[in-house]
Write a structure and sequence with these properties.
401 residues, alpha+beta, Rossmann fold, 2 domains, eight-stranded mixed beta sheet, five-stranded antiparallel beta sheet, 20 strands, binds S-adenosylmethionine
Length: 401
């Protein structure tokens, strides 16, 4: 287990991931394909950015005219307020500007705005960005940035990892359109899942199967796990993170139904050995639902509740399915758990007790039996259960019969 200080240090570093231009372009293109006028006449706010070199600012400034934007606003967080500021130096762009201020450069945030042709070349683009120091440090929670939020139509950014819940609440309370990046783990947060369940937020179009690669301002240090620091190209460190885009802007993938086989065909022909050749799908021990371990194994003709992996959200069409809840964390009022395991105890695959009570598996999706690979739970009557990964509960929207 990492200690608190290690966790804080990791979070501080994770707050300084920068998004690649190609990832922004790919995601934003999906919204434009669905609605070419999605940004027309709109004010876009890019908070929690570093406008001098942020790819968000660069991308939207370059596309200002073709998207028909009304105004672009981008704000940054003061260096002194950041948890992780290793290697910070003001850019030549700032130091060579008459506005440069030795104190404000670290104490204040900055604001960049783009709304008209400043240079007189009859184009509105990156060259027309105007900037000044903010009065405060650019914290998205400050009144200064809240005011900018309230005047904008769409909020787009990769917010600080450690403040994701707060950031999302900040966007939602103002009832704004948004496209933001967050960890896949955030899906299960009790502040996040209800938005997904109620179709107030969904995942973007970038595939769930691939982690995003972000640019890190740090140099690789030897204490980092090789799986986290993935590669260095031309001196730039790219870090892999299990992140996805979250949005309430519509895109076409949401309206494409998943092609599915019937339950009988899955049991006969599924490419998954866990399904093929079985007599039936497993039923949970503690939920009135069947276990569907793969999204492409969802039976087309089952009318009851199904537990599916989180990556289902990547394929979710609200016309095809209804989301009913999420195992764990009390997000499943519509599919209540029917059993508790407080009188069970946990056992390692080698048969040794771990010392933990079965209460820790309450609300997990549990199946009867033991696969011999993972810890399991047993009661004094010898009844054995084992939990599978976190599941989302869904049901076909239309009766399949
Ligand atoms: C994950 S980085 C992303 C930066 C940029 N949006 C991008 O994607 O390239 C998040 C940024 O938010 C900044 N930040 C951290 N806490 C903040 C806060 N309370 N208010 C505003 N920005 C904050 C961090 O310093 C960091 O620069």
């Amino acid at each position: 287990m990492p200690n608190i200080n290690q966790t804080n240090a990791k979070n501080a570093k994770n707050d300084e991931f920068y998004t690649q231009y190609a990832d922004i372009e790919k995601e934003i293109n999906a919204y434009l394909e669905f609605n070419p006028n999605v940004f027309r006449g709109k004010t876009i706010l890019l908070p929690c950015d570093d406008p001098e070199w942020s790819n968000f600012t660069k991308y939207f400034a370059q596309k200002f005219e073709s998207f028909g934007l009304k105004k672009l606003i981008s704000t940054s967080f003061a260096v002194d307020s950041k948890n992780y500021k290793k290697g910070y130096k003001p850019t030549a762009f700032e130091t060579s500007n008459p506005q440069f201020d030795k104190t404000k450069t670290t104490k204040n945030g900055k604001i960049f705005t783009l709304s008209h042709d400043k240079t007189g070349d009859h184009k509105v683009n990156v060259d027309d960005l105007e900037w000044h120091y903010l009065t405060g440090d650019g914290d998205f929670r400050s009144d200064e940035i809240k005011k900018l939020r309230d005047e904008s139509d769409i909020i787009i950014t990769n917010p600080p990892f450690s403040l994701f819940r707060e950031f999302l609440a900040w966007v939602v309370e103002a009832d704004k359109k948004f496209v933001i990046i967050g960890s896949k783990n955030a899906i299960a947060y009790k502040e996040v899942f209800p938005l997904i369940e109620n179709n107030k937020m969904w995942v973007g179009t970038t595939s769930f199967n691939k982690d995003l690669l972000f640019i890190s301002p740090e140099e690789i240090d030897s204490s980092q796990k090789p799986s986290t620091a993935t590669r260095t190209v031309d001196g730039i460190v790219y870090l892999r993170s299990p992140s996805v885009w979250f949005t309430n802007l519509d895109h076409g993938r949401r309206h494409q139904p998943l092609p599915l086989m019937t339950m009988a065909d899955n049991l006969k022909y599924s490419k998954h050995k866990e399904i093929k050749g079985k007599k039936s799908y497993d039923k949970y021990d503690n939920y009135d639902a069947i276990e569907v371990p793969f999204t492409d194994a969802i039976p087309s003709d089952y009318d009851g509740v199904m537990g599916v992996p989180i990556s289902f959200l990547d394929k979710y069409s609200p016309e095809q399915f209804e989301i009913l809840g999420n195992t764990q964390r009390g997000c499943h009022d519509k599919v209540p758990d029917t059993k508790k395991y407080d009188d069970y105890w946990e056992v390692k695959p080698n048969g040794k007790k771990t010392g933990s009570s079965g209460g820790k598996t309450n609300e997990n999706p549990n199946l009867r039996g033991n696969d011999g690979k993972k810890n399991y739970f047993v009661n004094k009557k010898g009844r054995v259960i084992q939990s599978v990964y976190q599941r989302i509960f869904i049901r076909h929207r239309k009766s399949t019969k």
